[in-house]
Amino acid sequence: MSSSRLQLVIFDFDGLIIDTESAILDAWRETYALCQRPFPADIFQEMIGRADHPFDPWHDLSQYGSSPLPPDDLKERFEQIHREQIEQSPVLPGVIERLFEAKARGMKAAVASSSSHSWVDRHLKERELFQHFDLIRCRDDVARAKPWPDLYLAVLDTLRIPAERAAVFEDSHNGLTAARAAGIQCVVIPNATTRTQDFTGATRVISSLEEFDFDS
Fold first, then answer.
1. What band does 3 get if pLDDT is binned at 50, 70 and 90?
2. What's the rounded Cα separation, in Å, for the pair 149 and 178?
3. pTM
4. Do residues 117 and 140 lie in contact, with contact meaning Cβ atoms separated by under 8 Å?
């Protein structure tokens, strides 16, 4: 990866900029435990980084769980747990440094996320990062989110930058699959939730964006 050729870096959001994935999985684990239902960890791993997985946890719990709370109260408890976890989630190490370094080198920076704009934009604004990105594309903007390449292709098309002049930072197998399908090199930074996934085909796998060097 040569910084002299790069014109664009694209960041995933969930699990890459903020570890929202661990937060939501913790909330689901607590909710499943409350309903005395085994937590389907393998299915939740498949869901990370995509918005179109057919599994519905609420349907699963309503059919096979045993909740001590009415459905609305159970969902409110889940949201409270999730909200508290997210509020305590900082921007992950190296993200701000790599974002500002890319901009200093004359590169554009974008976000491509399978989450909604209402989710991504709010959290970026709360952490004062929103204004530093040239473009944000979310599942609202495309027909298919990750693992399909539509989000990444939309970023390339809007910014008019060829795939070979871009690089992606991802944390999940589904995100890597989307980036590769779009023809973009992808550096994977797994988090605590995704580190056991298959990252075959990644340009590089590192433990933190603090380790990333644009010149190596």
1. low
2. 4
3. 0.81
4. yes
Query: For residue 1, which amino acid is it?
Result: M
Residue 146 pLDDT greater than 70, yes or no? yes
Backbone CA torsion sign across 108, 91, 144, 197: positive
Evaluated on CA atoms 85, 129, 113, 164, the torsion sign reads: negative
Distance between CA atoms of residues 148 and 29, nearest Å: 28
Nearest to 15 by CA among 115, 149, 101, 97: 115
Assigned token pair, 46: 């498949």
Cβ neighbours for 180, distance < 8 A, ≥ 6 positions apart: 186, 201
Give yes or no for a cis peptide into 93 (omega within 30° of 0).
no
Tokens encoding 42: 């393998």
Beta bridge partners of 136: 111
Distances in whole angstroms, Cα of residue 101 to Cα of each of 23, 72, 161, 171, 174: 28, 46, 19, 20, 26
